[in-house]
Amino acid sequence: MPSLFDPVRIGDITLANRIVMAPLTRNRAIAGNKPGPLAVEYYRQRASAGLIVSEASQISPMAQGYLDTPGIYSDEQVAAWRQVTDAVHAEGGRMVSQLWHVGRIAHTSLLPGGAAPVSSTARTSSAMTFTREGFVPVSTPRALHDDELPGIVAEYVHAAQCAIAAGFDGVEVHGANTYLLDQFLRDSVNDRSGPYGGSIANRARLLLEVMQAVCNSIGAGRTGIRLSPMTTFGNTCPLDSDPQALHNYVAEQLSSLGLAYLHLIEGETGGARTPEGQSPFDYAAMRRRFSGPWMINNGYSRADALAAVAAGQTDMVAFGRPFICNPDLVRRLREDKLLNALHAETLYGGGAKGYTDYPTLP
Q1: Which of 332, 337, 239 is nearest to 280 (CA)?
Q2: How far is it, in rounded angstroms, from Cα 168 to Cα 55?
């Protein structure tokens, strides 16, 4: 069986190893919601990852949910991201852009003209978001009309095209963590009737339309997706009534597209892979329904990751916080070296401290 450090081909992209830098929101975008010079250095430092998935990047002005997050829809953003991808490629790395629409996890102060967030529902989440006033409750959304949904699909396509123009090797559609596409998937949030509500097939319709359209635009071999069947976003979003049936169906439908990969968050995002009191989820059963490359994520240690790849449980393992504080994480994992400690107070916002100043091995 392959090891964590062996090359792998995912769709049209060849990776030097199976260690992936997970998407990590750091709230350091500069004016125009662009990545700045610090971001160029930050990603360059981590280019030894087999694949870097960019921090989540909004696909339109209405898709933004947090202060100082980058977009991937304007010419200026494309030019700024090109500096990042050029730096990563110069170091031999590969990088995809994570395409993000937050849906109802947003605040009117962040949206054009103070508009209400949009979602599958008009019900407000209990989540908080980060604005210029600090952490505040998210705003009440309005439910998108069915005839607005082709416009949402078009925004994903435009963002994917912008990502390719910016030099990314592909894109990862963010279908996880209770953001817009997940808000359509879950019957705990989606209270619609009509073609995008009710049955599993209807609730999965928007996600599948987005994926088909993006694949048609930039190629399935450069398109991945991220899903999180069992996360509750810090207990702010109930699970679907039958997450297993829902995600088995989604995996089956995605399998026919020939995607570059499916990126699965196991358990509670940033928490336990098997949360206490939560019904178990059969990830192996979901994987059997998807024929493409498989990526797993959520608190994997070196030993866990080595064992998962060696056992054929996954093709790749994504690491999040360890990559924040260990730019040379691949080397540290390969040589089984001690990892740097994370400085939690510098995770979101700020400058170089806790961003580009973590030490590497001599």
Answers
A1: 239
A2: 13
DSSP codes of every residue in 228-253? -TT--TTTTSPPPS-HHHHHHHHHHH
Instruction: Give residue 191's Cα distance to chain centre.
Output: 25
Quote the tokens at residue 97. 């852009």
Q: H/E element holding 39?
A: helix 37-45
Phi, psi angles (nearest 5°) of residue 154: -65, -35
Residue 326, pLDDT above cutoff 90 = yes
Of residues 73, 179, 283, 355, which has the active-site annotation?
Answer: 179
- Summarize pLDDT for 124-137 with one digit per residue, the tens: 999 999 999 999 99
Going by C-alpha positions, the residue among 203, 199, 251, 245 that lies closest to residue 227 is: 251
- Give the DSSP per-residue string, 250-304: HHHHHHTTT-SEEEEE-SSTTS-SS-TTPPP--HHHHHHT--S-EEEESS--HHH
Q: How far apart are CA 353 and CA 9, in angstroms?
A: 35
List the structure tokens of 8.
């792998």
Q: Specify whether 179 is catalytic.
A: yes
Nearest to 229, CA basis, from 297, 169, 171, 165:
297
DSSP per-residue string spanning 151-177:
HHHHHHHHHHHHHHHTT-SEEEEE--T
Task: Report pLDDT digits (tens) over 18-37.
Answer: 999 999 999 999 999 999 99
Domain range summary for the chain, segments of one domain joined by +: 8-13+28-294
CATH for 8-13+28-294, among 3.40.50.2300, 3.50.50.60, 3.20.20.70, 3.10.310.30? Answer: 3.20.20.70
Q: Tokens 């919601």 sit at which residue?
A: 33
Average model confidence (pLDDT) for the chain?
Answer: 97
Query: How far, in Å, CA of 298 to CA of 264, rounded?
Result: 9
